[in-house]
Amino acid sequence: MGADAQGLGRYSLGIGDRFAHEAEAQLAAFVEAARLGVDVTPVWNKSNREHLVVGSEPASVRAAAAAAVRALDWQAAYFVDADHITTTTVEHFLEPCDFFTLDVAGAIGGPAAVEAVEAFCARHGELTAGVKVAGIDAPVPMSRKTTARVARHYLGAVAAAGDLYRLIAAHCGEGTFLTEVSMDETDAPQTPAGLLVILAALADEGIPVRTIAPRFSGRFNKGVDYVGDVAGFAAEFAADIAVVRHAVGAYGLPEDLKLSVHSGSDKFSIFPAIREAIRRAGAGVHVKTSGTTWLEEVIGLAEAGGDGLALVQDVYVGAYERREELCAPYASVIDIDPACLPTPAAVRRWSAAQFVAAVRHDPRDPAYDRQVRQLLHVGYKVAAEMGDRYTELLLACRTSIARNVTDNLFERHLRPLFIDDQPTRRG
């Protein structure tokens, strides 16, 4: 598909669309950013897990994206991401996708062979003493012991990424797709020293990685704001930008390699830190969002009232009754206290305005309920099981839903990340 011919650009945003109805409304937000002179590349992403839950195929994401591009006459680049794929799930993504997020979480921490660790340390003597990195005041503390420890933890995952990359390249062809490597699903954040080792190893493996997703400090819970030390994140993010730039020069990685922030939906408190860091460094960033669009569908349906409100009340009730099942796959990225959830009977009595206020991510509104929002985030399986009842109402409530989807992506994500710090308007 010629991905390298266009490139990802400096700024890009991953956008999920679980039911493949919102691509045009999503793209309208990028059109608005471009109108203001800021180019952001849309990357439609959907994981194998989401396809299984919804009962869709990866080709549906490509079809929806292409239809939106035609409808809005979008002339710039766009991509379709095989999100968090592995060697066992990649097959159905090979034809429709031109961006691949390599998920090697299962191999992180699997002790690498002693011989592999020794060989890495021998190749990279520059990583066995302090490393001067432009943009970081003091040399990054390194020693042979430190490098060997990090290599033992990550070399197996890098090798798995290499195997998966070559599998994709054998089918799609070198230079026809973009590659992201996800290293965020691990217990502890990577230090600058750890990220340096990972990037050197990816270069050794011959992976032309374009985005790298490290683990940052704090919690990146699904659908709600960042939980953690914002100032600490800002310092960490700026240091990681410096490490990426150093690795590009030191190891011949692609010039446009940039950081990727996973579960980036709705992380409003750190968006200013990200914007300031990339502007100061002249760097780019990829921010991956997903379920925020599904939640805007819920909001749009509720706002429409009538059958739309009744449906989302049913979704909440189903999610409440099945919360252990629905939360289990997302246990590490949600934080729900069941005792704080309103009862199904209470939600049945909510008006459209009450439902919208509880779910819309506006922390200034005292009615906003992060517990409800998180539960609905993982409750899309309930909507999927409704089949035609859900998708027909998406069409019937098109105006309300599209307005909310576009407003959320532009005002709450694209604007604070890439444009300015204007306060977000209520949708």
What are its keywords?
globular; 51% helix; TIM Barrel; alpha/beta; 427 residues
Can you tell me about this structure?
- The chain has 18 helices and eight strands.
- With 427 residues, it is an alpha/beta fold.
- It has two domains: 298 residues, Aldolase class I (TIM Barrel, Alpha-Beta Barrel); 118 residues, no CATH class.
- The chain has an eight-stranded parallel β-barrel, surrounded by six helices.
- Helix 2 links the parallel strand 1 and strand 2.
Summed up:
Helix content is 51%, strand content 10%. The chain contains 18 helices and eight strands. Strand 7, helix 9 (271-281) and strand 8 (285-288) form a beta-alpha-beta unit.
SSE topology:
Layout: H1 3-6, E1 11-16, H2 23-35, E2 41-47, H3 48-54, H4 58-72, E3 79-85, E4 99-103, H5 114-123, H6 144-172, E5 178-182, H7 192-204, E6 211-213, H8 230-251, E7 258-261, H9 271-281, E8 285-288, H10 291-304, H11 306-321, H12 323-327, H13 344-348, H14 352-359, H15 370-378, H16 380-385, H17 388-396, H18 398-419
Parallel strand pairs: 1-2, 1-8, 2-3, 3-4, 4-5, 5-6, 6-7, 7-8
Helix pairs in contact: 2-4, 2-18, 5-6, 6-7, 7-8, 8-9, 9-18, 10-11, 10-14, 10-15, 10-18, 11-15
